[in-house]
Design brief:
Strand content: 35-45%
CATH topology of the largest domain: OB fold (Dihydrolipoamide Acetyltransferase, E2P)
Mean pLDDT: 92
Radius of gyration: 16 Å
Helix content: under 10%
Largest sheet: 5 strands, mixed, barrel
Distance between the termini: 27 Å
CATH architecture of the largest domain: Beta Barrel
Number of strands: 10
Strand order of the largest sheet: 4-5-6-10-7
Number of helices: 2
Structural class: mainly beta
Low-confidence stretches: none
Number of domains: 2
Shape: globular
CATH class of the largest domain: Mainly Beta
Length: 138
């Protein structure tokens, strides 16, 4: 992996390349996504980039009907809710992301524990397009 700093800027650079990355502590082996520069388990700073498979299961979710301005601009709101969840990756770490391909207007149809996989759709914003992390049922 490149020698990029463990930061949100680097993490988002990988997301733009359609890669889900995390960091692994060389001291104790703990994994984190998004990456961390210091291990909260052993407090070591010897971290390395790790490519995550992008598969996991939905650990928790919420359906949002009252959208913030950025989501309202994308067409979400009372009549078109969206789902955000916490995904437990097969490697172990948990990551929060939007969950697509589910019926957010019917939360009972979404099941905790269902298999999901990472996808990297593009959105156009301020004249450019960039990829972002989301998950969909596998």
């Amino acid at each position: 992996m490149e020698d990029l700093p463990f930061s949100d800027v680097s993490y988002n650079k990988y997301i733009a390349e359609e890669k889900l990355m995390g960091s692994r502590c060389r001291g104790c082996g703990a994994l984190f996504t998004p990456p961390r520069s210091i291990c909260p388990v052993c407090f070591g700073s010897a971290m390395e980039w790790v490519t995550m498979e992008g598969k996991g299961k939905l650990a928790a979710f919420t359906c949002i009907f009252i959208a913030p301005p950025s989501m309202t601009a994308q067409g979400y709101g009372r009549n078109r809710p969206y789902c955000v969840g916490v995904v437990e990756l097969v490697e172990g770490p948990r990551v929060a992301a939007r969950i697509e391909g589910v019926d957010a207007s019917n939360p009972l149809s979404i099941k905790v524990g269902m298999a999901v996989r990472a996808i990297f759709p593009y959105r156009t914003d301020k004249g450019g397009a960039d990829s972002y992390l989301t998950f969909e049922p596998a």
